[in-house]
Amino acid sequence: MKKYIFYTIILLFVFINSVFSQQNKRVIKEIIVENNKIVSEQLIVSNVKSSVGLDYSSVVLSDDIKRLYALGLFNDVKADVEDIEEGSVRVIFTITEKPVLEKMIFKGNRKIKTKKLLSKIGVKTKEIFNQFKLKEGIEELKKFYYEKGYALAVIDYEIKEKDSKVEVIIDINENKRIRIRKIIFNGNNTYSDKQLLKLIKTRKKTLFVSGFYKEEVCADDKERLIAFYQTQGFADVAVKTIVDYDQERTKMFVSFEIQEGKQYYTGQVLINGNTIVDDAELESNFEMKKAAIYRREQMQRDLTEIQNYYFDRGYMASSVKADTILNAQTGYIDVTYDVVEGTVAYVNKVNITGNIRTKDVVIRREMRLCPGDRYNGEKMRRSSQRLYNLGYFEEVAFNTPEKPTILPDKYDLDVFVNESKTGEFSFGAGYSSIDKFIGFVDLTQRNFDLFNFPTFTGGGQKLRMHMEFGADKKDYELGFIEPWCLGYPLSVGGNIYNRTKDWDEYDERRIGGNVFVGKEVGEYWQSKLTYKYEGVRISELSDQASSDIRLEEGKNYISSLTNEIIYDTRNNIYNATTGVYDLLSCEVGGGILGGDKDFVKYYTKNSKYFPVTKKSVFEIKFRGGFVDSYADTEYIPIYEKFYVGGANTIRGYKEREVGPRGENGDYVGGRMMFVFNAEYIYIIIKNLKWAFFYDIGNVWQKPSDFNWDSLKLKASIGSGVRVKTPLGPIRLDYGYALNPKKGDSRGRFHFSMSHEF
Q1: How far lies 147's CA from each of 172, 198, 241, 349, 426, in Å?
Q2: Could you tell me which of 80, 128, 121 has the C-alpha nearest to residue 100?
Q3: How sure is the predictor about 401, in pLDDT bands with cuts at 50, 70 and 90?
Q4: Which residues have a Cβ under 8 Å from the Cβ of 574 and sit 6 or more positions away?
Q5: How many CB atoms lie within 10 A of CB 227?
Q6: Coil, strand, or helix at residue 368?
Q7: Given phi > 0 = left and psi -120 to 50 = alpha, else beta, which region is 210?
Q8: Does the pLDDT value for residue 434 go beyond 60?
Q9: What residues form DSSP beta bridges with 3?
Q10: How many CB atoms lie within 10 A of CB 438?
C-alpha cells in the first residue's frame, strides 16, 4: 500500500510540473539588433542560436552573448527580453562595436610600394579594427621583407584612437638589402662542399642568381642534407644552420654545421612469423643486403614489399614491422622483419562513392574484384587501371576498412571516384603542317547515355559530332559507341562521314560509314570486326598527275571487312608509362562483299613503353603493312596504298613525300610500308611535355623492292613539345632529315592538333 501511494505522488508531481512548464513556455516572435553601424544585422543573427519560432531559453541566450563576443567585433553585448503577448517574447540585442579602422599610414617604405604592402598585411580600412589581425599582418610584412632580402628590416606600429575611429601608423626601417655572399659547410669529412652544394637550393649571389636568404628554403636544405647522409648509412647525422653577417651587416654568410657520426653497415637481415612463404622468396626482392651500407629508405621499401606480398594474396589483416639493433660484436646493424600474417580475407560488399553522373553499373563492370572473391592486389590494381582508362575520373582510390564486418574474414571494399569533365563543346581555328589552316566545331560526350533524359550522361557510351574545314580539307563525322551491348561485354558502334582532301595533284572525297562489333578475350586481348562501305571520288587532276593517279579518276565504291586483334597492357591508355600495345589487322575488300576494288591489306602496330624516371618515359613503336590485289583488280588504288613522311610517320620530311614517285615526280604511295619510331618524353610541368625522337622507315612499290640493296631507308632526328589543352592535345615537333632528296631542306616543323574520342 505504501509503495502504491509513493508512485501516485511521483506521477502527480510529474503531471503538475508538466502543466506548469506548458504555462511558462514562451516562443520567440521577434529578434531586434540595436546600435550596430558597421556590422550587419544578418551577420549578428546568423551567429546566435536563438531564432524566431523557437522556444525562448535563458541558457541559450547567455550562450548567444558569448558567441557574439567571440567574433571579436564588439566591445559590449547586451540582451533584453520583452513580453509581447501571452506566450511570446521579443529578444533585443544591444551591441557596442569596436572602433573602425579609418586610416592606415606607411612610413619609411622607400623600396616597396604602399600598394604592395597593403595587399600583404591583410587588414582593410573602413572595417572593424582587430588588433590581433594587425599583429598577424605585421608578421606577414616582416616575412615579406625577409624574402625580398631585407633581413634587417625593422617594422613597428602605433595605434591612435579617437571617437570610435582608429588610425594605424606603420613605421618601417628597411635598412640595406642583404644577399648571401658565402655558403659554408663545416664538419663534412666524407663529402666535399661541391657535392653537398648540389643538394641544397640556397644559393649565394652571382650574376644570374639573386642570392636572397629564405628561411623556409634553408630549413628544407637542412632536411635534404640529413636525408642524404642517412641514405649513405649515417643514421646519427645532425645538421644545424647558422646565419651570420659581416661587421657592416651588409653581407650574409650561411653555415651548415654537420655532425656526420658513424657510417653504419647492414648486418644480418632476418624474417620472423612467415609461415605461408619461405624466407628465400621474400628476400629475393629485398634491397637491404648484408655488409652493404645501412639505408633506412631501403628498409622502408622492404617493409612495403613484404606488406604488398601479403596483400596481393588476400591477407588484408597482415602487418609487418622492422626492428633494428646494433650488434656490439660486429659493429653492424642487424635488421629483423616481424610478420603477423593473419588470415585470408574475402570481399563482402563493394561500396562506390563520388560518382555523381556515372551509374554504378558502369563502374562495377570494370571491377575485377566482386563480392565473395578473395582479396587480390593485382586485381585491385587492374580494376584501378580500367577505371582510369574509361577517361571519366580524375581520381580513383580503393580503401579497405581496418576492421572486418560481423564475419571475421569478410571486408568491405570502398571505391571512391572523383569525376572529371567528359563532355566537351569546342570550336576554334588553328594551323597544321598536314592540313594547313583549319577551323573546327566538335561536340563530344565520352560518358553518354542515350536513354537518360534530359542529361544524357552516365551510361558509359560515346558520342561525337565533328566538323573540320580548311583550305585543303573538309571533314564531317558522326560517331557512336556502346561498350556494353544489352548488358553484355560486347562493344558495338559506327561512324558516318564525309571527307574531302585537296592533294597537290588531285582532290579526294570519301563519303561512307562503318559499323563494328568488338569483344574482350581475356583481360588484355580484344577482337574487333568492322564493315565499311564508302564511295571515293578522285577529281580535279593536275596536268602533272602521274598515270597511277589518272587510273583512279572518277568514282569507285569500297566494300570491306576488317578483323583486328589487339593486345594492350598499358597502365594508362591516355598517358602510358609501362606496358605494350600490339595491333594486327587484316582488311578484305571486294569479292563477295561487292564494291569496285578487290584487295587484301595487312597492317600491324606495336608499341612498348619503358619508365625511365618518375617524370619520363621511353617509347618504341613499329608499324608495318602490306596490300595486294586479287580477282579483277589489277592495280591497288592510290587511296588504299601506304604513305610515309610528315608529322605522324617520319618527321623532317614533307607529308607523304617518302617513297615511290610517279613518272612526273609526284608521290603515289606503295604496297609495303615500314616505320620505326623511338621517342623519349619528359614531363616539364603538368600538361606540358618535352620529347626527343628518332624516326626511320620507307614505302616500297612491290615486294621485290623490299631487300637489303633496295631498302633506302629514310631517317630523322628531332625534338618537340606536347601540350594538353581544352581543345585537344597539341604537338609541335622539329624534325631534321638525315637522308633528304637533293634540293630538299633538312629541317622542318610539324604542328598538329588532335581531338580525342
Answers
A1: 16, 22, 17, 53, 43
A2: 128
A3: confident
A4: 388, 389, 391, 756
A5: 14
A6: coil
A7: alpha
A8: no
A9: none
A10: 20
Q: What is the C-alpha separation between 666 and 545, in angstroms, rounded?
A: 7
Element (H, E) at 11: helix 2-24
Cα gap 708→658, rounded to integer Å: 18
Cell readout for 28 is 520567440
CA distance 121 to 86: 53
Could you tell me the three cell numbers for 360? Answer: 554504378
The cell for 225 is 642534407
Cell numbers that stand for 675 in this block: 616505320
Neighbours of 89 (CB within 10 A): 19
* Residue 707 or 736, more confident: 736
> Coil, helix or strand for 703?
helix
What's the burial of 315, exposed, middle or buried (CB within 10 Å: 0-12/13-18/19+)? Answer: buried
Neighbours of 402 (CB within 10 A): 8
CA distance 175 to 494: 73
- HEC-encoded secondary structure of 439-450: EEEEEEEEEECC
Half-sphere exposure of 567 (CA within 13 A, CB side): 9
Please give the torsion angle defined by the CA atoms of residues 686, 688, 689 and 690, in that order, rounded to the nearest 10 degrees. -140
Please state, in angstroms and rounded to a whole number, the distance separating the CA atoms of residues 604 and 586. Answer: 9
Per-residue pLDDT tens over the stretch 81-110: 888 887 888 999 998 888 888 889 999 988
241, 256 in Cβ contact below 8 A? Answer: yes
DSSP string for 108-141: S-SSS-HHHHHHHH---TTSB--HHHHHHHHHHH
DSSP sequence for 407-424 = STTEEEEEEEEEE---EE
* Whether the bond into 489 is cis, omega within 30 of 0: no
Phi first, then psi: give them for residue 75, nearest 5 degrees. -85, -30
Instruction: For the chain, list the domains and their CATH numbers.
Output: 25-97 (3.10.20.310), 100-173 (3.10.20.310), 179-259 (3.10.20.310), 266-340 (3.10.20.310), 346-419 (3.10.20.310), 641-757 (2.40.160.50)
Residue 636 has pLDDT above 60, yes or no: yes
Cell representation of residue 252 = 650574409
3-state secondary structure of 331: coil
Burial of 329 (0-12, 13-18, 19+ CB in 10 A): exposed
CB 513 within 8 A of CB 493: no
